[in-house]
Design goal:
By secondary structure, the protein is mostly beta strands. Strands 2, 4, 5, 6, 9, 10 and 11 form a 7-stranded mixed sheet that branches. A 4-stranded antiparallel sheet has the order 1-3-8-7, with no helix packed on it. A hairpin with a 6-residue loop joins strand 5 and strand 6.
Amino acid sequence: QVQLVESGGGLVQAGGSLRLSCAASGRTFSSYDMAWYRQAPGKERECVAVTSWSGRGTYYAASVKGRFAISRDNAKNTVDLQMNSLKPEDTAIYYCKGRGPEGSDYWGQGTRVTVSS
């Protein structure tokens, strides 16, 4: 089991950058596929980026490809989301999710990102 805590959200102007970080507790973090999701007001939660347990495999939603980058440090038990060229439509609560090898999902509490135009 892993516990996840996000940080790094805030208010930024369009075109700016933010770096979100997710800190994980537990000794099995390196075996978890990790992902960032977001949920905008009135919309369903959507997957933004995924990194495999090794970090060698990644996936990005079309809406963020080329602007966002996911990375992980298994030695520090962290997974980050670098967000560049932010747009107002990136405004959402961003969640960190871990999926263990047994298939169970674990979620953080979320961090709010607001992009002003």
